[in-house]
Design brief:
The protein has helices at 2-29, 72-84, 138-149, and strands at residues 50-58, 66-69, 102-109, 117-121, 125-128, 131-134. The chain is an alpha+beta fold and 153 residues long.
């Protein structure tokens, strides 16, 4: 019985490792819909390129996230702050994980971007399409991100 239990644990761990490695390879190879090559970096996003932005706000209190569709004024504010954000090089060591309050923006872009979508999670660790960067000017502009994160139409 002990042998079967050990064998089960070894096989299970091997499968988890295999799945994890394959997911990381897909992420690195860009074989998913949120590939790194589909990122518009800060400084390059234009209001005219955006079809819609949906904000999902989680307060970290165990309740459901609030979902808000941003109006055109709020989209312009988001683009302004996003373009002010300075990011480090890609940090391949970090994975997205939030243990508290979090704001996630789902951005649908126009046809010129082949109806591409981006997912942005601002913070000191700044995630775009689940790729992590460090926000280099966090202290200077975080208060502006708080305004965008708390906006309701």
């Amino acid at each position: 019985m002990l042998f079967k239990r050990k064998l089960f644990v070894i096989v299970t761990m091997g499968l988890l490792l295999f799945v994890s490695c394959n997911m990381n390879e897909e992420k690195k190879d860009g074989n998913n819909s949120l590939a790194q090559d589909s990122i518009i970096m800060p400084g390059n996003l234009n209001v005219e390129d955006i079809v819609s932005i949906t904000l999902s706000s989680y307060k970290g209190d165990g309740k459901e996230s609030e979902i808000t569709e941003l109006n055109s004024d709020k989209i312009a504010l988001f683009v302004e702050i996003y373009n002010m954000t300075e990011l480090s090089e890609l940090n391949e060591e970090k994975e997205y994980a939030s243990s508290g309050a979090a704001s996630t923006y789902f951005i649908k872009l126009k046809d010129s971007y082949k109806n591409m979508e981006m997912v942005v999670c601002p913070g000191k660790d700044f995630f775009i399409n689940h790729f992590c960067y460090e926000m280099m000017n966090f202290d200077e502009i975080w208060d502006r991100w708080i305004i965008v994160n708390s906006v309701r139409n």
